[in-house]
Amino acid sequence: MEQTAEQARQLDHLASAPPPGGSPFVAFGMPGFGGPPAPAVPEPRPILELEGEVYEDELDALSDWVDDFLLPVYGAEVTTAAPWCLQWQEHSDVVAWLHALWLAYQQHKDPEAGLAGMFVWHRDFLTHAMAAIRAPGGPLSACMTSPERPAHRLLPGPPPSARAEKESEAQAPMPDESGLAS
Questions:
Q1: Most buried of 66, 119, 152, 168, CB within 10 angstroms?
Q2: Distance between CA atoms of 68 and 66, rounded to whole angstroms?
Q3: CA-CA-CA-CA dihedral for 110, 111, 115, 120, to nearest 10
Q4: What is the pLDDT along the chain (182 residues), one digit of tens a residue?
Q5: Cβ neighbourhood burial of 109 (10 Å; 0-12, 13-18, 19+)
Q6: Integer Cα distance of 55 and 44 in angstroms
Q7: Helix axes 92-109, 52-65, angle to 10 degrees
């Protein structure tokens, strides 16, 4: 009887929940297994959603990466088929493309991306982004097409949609009986 009671206590002990922090995985620092929680990774935001000093700081860091790494390695020759602009920071669409390319670069050079991380960045991000930015009819097509003739011109965007115009008309103050806007 005593032996049966001891076995029942052992079974109850084995069936009970482990004490908090008593996980065997704590020594390995595995989050979710009793180890320290994983640090919160800041959520990347598109640069065009940033404002003020935060935007300026991000643009400065992006400019350093573009000028010190991207252009010397992947800039290639400036031609009519591959224009460039020395004032690319003024082209918001180019800033957005390059920022996205830079974020992808940071992610894919991380050791967690594995040995093929940089290959994936080249294949899936670099080639496509540079082709879009430097296309003959792309956002820089009105800028420098020859290093001997530096140029910069922002191309006008399309006009607002009919829907946007209707909304702005609806929000305009209505004239009262005297003909003056209220």
A1: 66
A2: 6
A3: -20
A4: 888 888 888 777 777 766 555 555 555 555 555 555 666 666 778 998 899 999 999 999 999 999 999 999 999 899 999 999 999 999 999 999 999 999 999 999 999 999 999 999 999 999 999 999 999 999 999 998 888 888 888 877 788 888 877 777 777 666 666 555 55
A5: exposed
A6: 13
A7: 70
CB 98 within 8 A of CB 61: no
Minimal CA–CA distance to 96: which of 53, 46, 43, 157?
46
**Structure token pair of residue 8:** 């029942």
For 61, the token pair is: 């860091």
* Cα-trace Rg, the chain: 29
Residue type, 35: G
